Amino acid sequence: MKTFIASVILTGLISTSLAQSTSFTTFREKFIGEEDVHHFSINGFFTRMILRIATEDEFNKAVKEVKNIRLVTVPKAAFEKQKVTVDGFKHELSKDAFEELAHAKEQGKNITLYIQSTLKHDNRYMVLIDEPYVVTLVEFRGKVDPDVLLKNGPLSFNKPQ
Predict the structure, then answer these.
(1) Which of 1, 19, 57, 101 to pair with 146, CA 20 to 30 A apart?
(2) Is the predicted pLDDT of residue 122 greater than 90, yes or no?
(3) What predicted TM-score, i.e. pTM, was given to this entire model?
(4) What is the DSSP string of the chain?
């Protein structure tokens, strides 16, 4: 029985680690000890409930079957301290098979949506929000209908190949 329980726990840990993108994990680990760096993640039913409560109907129509959301906020001062740049991170995203899907500039913020297509039913998405003093990275798994997003927002759009 102990072997069975240990196997279940090990399988859970392995599947959890495989479910995370290398880019997000690298980004979080790079800044985790810095001042004013914040991180959280939510999964499953709680994720879907928060999205329904906090977002508009049009957004809920576009974002379907979200499995989990992870978020990190990092002050620009931490980038300077670590001697790294947002452009450098964008390069890491491309090495991790993320493609730019959409981009918007609004009120001093550069918002870029990336997609990492998988062979499974859902994809992995990364939203990079580059503000004057803070960078926010959001990762989630699920399905997004880009046509619905385009109808409802100021996005420029790049279709994945």
Answers:
(1) 19
(2) no
(3) 0.71
(4) -HHHHHHHHHHHHHHHHHTS-HHHHHHHHHHTTSTT-EEEEEEHHHHHHHHHHHS-HHHHHHEEEEEEEEEEEEEHHHHHHHT--HHHHHHHHHHTT-EEEEEEEETTEEEEEEEE--SSS-EEEEEEEE-SSEEEEEEEEEEE-HHHHHHHS--EE----
Q: Which tops the pLDDT comparison, 39 or 65?
A: 39
Q: How far apart are CA 63 and CA 5, in angstroms?
A: 36
Q: In DSSP terms, which residues pair with 49 in a beta bridge?
A: none
pLDDT in tens, 2-22: 333 333 333 333 333 345 688
Cβ pair 99, 158 in contact under 8 A: yes
At residue 107, does pLDDT exceed 80?
yes
Is the torsion defined by CA of 88, 94, 97, 98 positive or negative? positive
Tokens of 20: 């995370």
Angstrom distance (rounded) from CA 138 to CA 117: 16
> Which residue type sits at 23?
S
Distance, in Å, from the CA atom of 63 to the CA atom of 51, rounded to the nearest integer, reads 9
- Pairwise CA distance, residues 100 & 115, whole Å: 6
Place of tokens 């209908």: 145
